């Protein structure tokens, strides 16, 4: 869902996926490049006709095209090349984007994994989100180690973990430092650093650890909330 929100906020966002299950579209993503095709698509082996068939079991196995030839799943099988148009568009999207988020891939299957060095070669920022180290970790400008389901909403700011101004105003309770997981701290620190860029002394910022940065931010928030409450009480 965080990726859907990212696209809503940044319509130029392109989602490049190796998944063939169509779940990104089901969640609401629109601009999706499916490197390995789509399991819900059926394709003629002769005339190239392609159509969507969402029936969980096809009445006729193997399915046939109207032309009479055999049809096959519209995915890339092992050893087959990726669709030229899709990999071309993915390459273009990587080259023209400021940031490449590499999420949930072991980064070993090419040509998909090749998009990472491509981004670096074009001077783009690479941010990896993965619980484990991968070959991408060495190349990435920043590796956020943890589950994407936790880190991505913090980065995008679509989750309750994201500090919201409205929380402070309404007095809704934010997580305390002690309640936050390590990936949440890393993600919040990364969000804070991007927000503070150009607004805080870069030297001071670079010397602060993620933990200290988040602690200071939460302390400031807490004081702001208490201050607001006191003001209300005074009235
Ligand atoms: N490589 C292919 O040919 C191919 C084809 C079709 C579909 N896919 C799908 O594309 C995706 C990526 O492909 P792959 O070959 O890199 O898969 P992979 O199985 O080699 O790697 C999956 C990666 O996801 C990471 N991961 C696990 N849980 C995570 C989480 N909660 N948040 C973030 N990362 C997490 C793992 O640490 C691992 O590095 C997979 O979902 C795979 O099923 C791949
Ligand atoms: Zn046909």
CATH topology name of the largest domain, in short, is Rossmann fold
Q: Radius of gyration over alpha carbons?
A: 23 Å
Strand order of the largest sheet: 4-3-5
Principal-axes shape call? elongated
Question: How much of the polypeptide forms β-strand, as a percent range?
Answer: 5-15%
What's the architecture of the largest domain, going by CATH?
A: 3-Layer(aba) Sandwich
Number of strands: 8
Number of helices: 10
Indicate the mean pLDDT. 86
Q: Which CATH class of the largest domain applies here?
A: Alpha Beta
Ligands bound to this protein structure? nicotinamide-adenine-dinucleotide, zinc ion
Query: How many domains, in number, for the residues?
Result: 3
- Reading the helices and strands in chain order gives HEHEEEEHEHEHEHHHHH
Helical fraction = 40-55%
Largest sheet: 3 strands, antiparallel
What is the first-to-last residue Cα distance?
42 Å
Give me the secondary-structure category: alpha/beta
CATH superfamily of the largest domain: TPP-binding domain
> Spans of 5+ residues with little confidence (pLDDT < 50)?
166-171, 228-235
Describe, in short, the structure shown.
With 235 residues, the protein is α/β, with parallel strands linked by helices.
Description:
The protein has three domains: 2-36 and 82-149, Rossmann fold, CATH 3.40.50.1220; 39-75, no CATH class; 161-234, no CATH class. The longest helix has 25 residues, at 210-234. Strands 4-3-5 form a three-stranded antiparallel beta sheet, with no helix packed on it. The protein has 235 residues and is α/β, with parallel strands linked by helices. It has helices spanning 2-9, 23-27, 84-96, 115-121, 135-139, 148-156, 165-170, 182-196, 202-207, 210-234; strands spanning 15-17, 32-34, 37-44, 50-52, 71-75, 99-103, 125-129, 142-144. Helix 6 packs parallel to helix 8 and helix 8 (182-196) packs across helix 10 (210-234). Strand 1 (15-17), helix 2 and strand 2 (32-34) form a beta-alpha-beta unit. Residues 166-171 and 228-235 have low confidence and may be disordered. The structure holds nicotinamide-adenine-dinucleotide and zinc ion.
